[in-house]
Specification:
alpha+beta, four-stranded antiparallel β-sheet, 3 helices
Length: 96
């Protein structure tokens, strides 16, 4: 079964408050078997302007990636992200 992924692009607008999102989202992601493949780090955006921070989370499958995002625990964390950052999330099925 193909893995599921979150691909996230973020520009943090309030870093101190955003730290609470990271504190809350990490255990939720891990509870759903998620693993952070990319979380910030050095990057280039050679073709189009992008947000400042990029995150890729790998899940056992697409259904689990979607269930994590829709969970009450993650939605509580997401409210903090939405209030303190400009972000885009894509939940996608991998090829293998």
């Amino acid at each position: 079964m193909p893995k599921g992924y979150w691909i996230v692009h973020v520009t943090v607008t309030k870093p101190d408050a955003y730290a609470e999102y990271i504190r809350l989202d990490t255990p939720v992601v891990e509870r759903f078997g998620g693993r952070f493949i990319v979380r910030g780090g050095q990057h280039e955006t050679p073709e189009t302007p992008q947000k400042d921070r990029h995150v890729v989370v790998e899940f056992p499958d697409y259904a689990t990636a979607l269930a994590c995002y829709k969970s009450d625990a993650y939605r509580q964390a997401a409210a903090i992200r939405l209030a303190n950052a400009d972000s885009d999330i894509v939940i996608i099925e991998g090829t293998a």
